[in-house]
Amino acid sequence: MWTCKTTWKKLAPLARTCSTLCRQNARRTVLNSDRRLPMVTQAHMSSGTPGSGGDNNLYYLLVGATCIAGGFYAYRTIKGDQERYNERMNEIASRANKVAEQAETYLPEEPRAADPATDEPTNVPPPAPVEFPSHAPYLLIGGGTASFAAARSIRARDPGARVLIITDEPDLPYMRPPLSKELWFSDDPGVVDTLRFKQWNGKERSIYFQPPSFYVSPQDLEKVENGGVAVLTGKKVVHMDVRGNKVTLSDNTEISYDKCLIATGGVPRNLQVIERAGEEVTKRTTLFRKVEDFKALNKVSRDTKSITIIGGGFLGSELACALGRRSADSDLEVIQMFPEKGNMGKVLPEYLSNWTTAKVRSEGVRVITEALVKGVSFKDGKVEIKLKDGRVVKTDHIVAAVGLEPSVELAKSAGLEVDSDFGGYRVNAELQARSNIWVAGDAACFYDIRLGRRRVEHHDHAVVSGRLAGENMTGANKPYWHQSMFWSDLGPDVGYEAIGIVDSSLPTVGVFAKATAKDTPKAATEKSGTGIRSESETEGTASSTATSSTPAPPPEPQQKDDYGKGVIFYLRDKVVVGIVLWNVFNRMPIARKIIKDGEEHADLNEVAKLFNIHED
Amino acid sequence: MSYCKQEGKDRIIFVTKEDHEAPSNAELIADDPNDPYEDQGLILPSGEINWNCPCLGGMASGPCGTQFKEAFSCFHHSSEEVKGSECVDNFRAMQECMQKYPELYPQEDENQGAASGGSDAPTEDSAPTPTSDLTPTPESAPSSDNTPPTDIQAHS
């Protein structure tokens, strides 16, 4: 059935062109004959027919050739698709096996780990003996940002709700953006343990959304008077029985639910060349996502001489800048390599991407663009990265920031659909996969009424979608409507907020003003006295790069700095589908409105006026 | 003067302050304040309190959420001369609950419950809960996130 569907999809355009060609040819022949017929009837009949007959043969030949070529192309594509699909399913299956193995090895260690755990100030309630609630009215699978936002939403709307969060991480829910930004700029040498960071308004906070006292312990969840949120850490849901409304954990415990949210996020992708490179390389490779990865990389940055980041997107560039800053005080070499022509090459138009790359370089990072990694090996105590163009880079440690693979292991047992274009669980505009099952966050491929089907991997989206899922789990029936935003800071001079579909392959229109010293992320918050962007947006977002830690004053934006501040519109069929606010802050509501309207604007300069880019 | 350049599919326009002085003629669609899809502010069109408002932070969802909701509802519906004067018991219960969780509801010098209950409720309420929250700063309140239409209408 699948093959038929894709075959038809591939063939449809071809069939269409073939049929239109046929129709056009037929029409042309008819017209020709029509025109000729009146003349022909006067003269001999024979003069008309052989001519048009010969033309007909030519047309048939052309059409026939096109059909054969089209058929051949369709066959090749479908074959490729089939292979790609199989590869993907195999990959997911193999990952599930690996995780199942890990879960089994984790289990016998748990009772032993319980004792040292109780000595330290951990966020995990004493694990043994843990009685799990056998039933949770609201079950949230995954303990990240989306899950926490949903928990909060459920508790706000359903008085006395009992919410159980199950996470395979050992930590309580926390926010990820500081792991690649603020935490690296902290003055506190104990930041690795406290995980607290200073926002630009000077206030300090923890990456954890709530301290442990906020949560109810899992065994008390069913009894506590006004309900609450309980978190089961270090447990993985391995099987989901949708008909029976229950899930099975890795230790064979079963928990039934009334409403379930899947917010499993994803796991960092790795390069195949690294996976195949052997243990010496893989143990010197970091896939950055969790708190433990931050702690490990922090240690590595102090112990090694050279770190190479593979990947030029958000995470890669932010880590490069963070490590680059650190290299200023030590003799750490920081290299960043990626296949695009510049940092954020898939997000920013080329001129801005080049500009950003220059900034990253000024942070002390050696940026290698257009770098395709061909092979990785471990030689003479160094990790050797061979690029396709022959260049070789020798380093001590690799950080692979090459994307996220959404975690959809439950799809099989739950019978949930996985999206083949974007990955992740396929859900409708209300984030529902099936009755009583919702999906939010990185793992959700949802239908955005304005922008179409998509899957978004940003923090604010996790908050917005988590909150929406929580609302819908308590009967709101609202679609995804409030457009989430995202932001990035690359050093004290470059900061931008963005909303919608920000894909550099779309045509863009950028409207810029000359920057003054006042137009930097740091200056903007200092003036307003508050944290910016996220603070005026939905909750759960953290402000970005703190510069108070640097001893030297931030460099003045140079006069040749053409792209000081402005607005960039991303267009799809003449409609603005994405906006980047470049060094322009506190204007996200206007941007959101423009995207929501979805109108065709004849002059985008007029639209840009709405942002008052010359003001602060 | 503004000038424009084209780099492939990307267009770049540089504008001076004078260029942008004239008001914009871009048309924006008027917002429907009762749009059920939109995120509402603190008070819903029906007059009820939106407990899921980001401005409340975690107040309605935490361990003292029930007490907070009772106290705040009472205050909101109060039509006494001194608003909320009949809600003292509710606020006391809330305060007692909050004292059990000093980490979540840091006790400052004045009486937390009374201060937030008596004065302008929404903006102040977020102030006592800065640290334990999703919202990093108190001033985040109802303004920008929940009333974008006002901003837009001012321009158009």
Supply the number of helical segments of chain A.
15
Largest sheet of chain B: 2 strands, antiparallel
- The gross shape of chain A turns out to be globular
Fraction in beta strands of chain A: 15-25%
- CATH homology-level superfamily of the domain at 135-173 and 211-265 and 407-474 in chain A: FAD/NAD(P)-binding domain
Largest sheet of chain A: 8 strands, mixed
Shape of chain B: elongated
CATH class of the domain at 135-173 and 211-265 and 407-474 in chain A: Alpha Beta
Distance between the termini of chain A: 58 Å
Looking at the overall shape, the CATH architecture of the domain at 47-106 in chain B is Orthogonal Bundle
> What's the end-to-end separation of chain B, in Å?
24 Å
In percent, how much strand structure appears in the residues of chain B?
5-15%
From the alpha-carbon coordinates, what is the Rg of chain A to the nearest angstrom?
A: 29 Å
Kindly report the CATH topology of the domain at 47-106 in chain B: Helix Hairpins
Computed structural class of chain A: alpha/beta
The residue fraction in helices of chain A comes out at 25-40%
Spell out the helices and strands of chain B N to C: EEHHHHHH
**Helix proportion range of chain B:** 25-40%
CATH class of the domain at 47-106 in chain B: Mainly Alpha
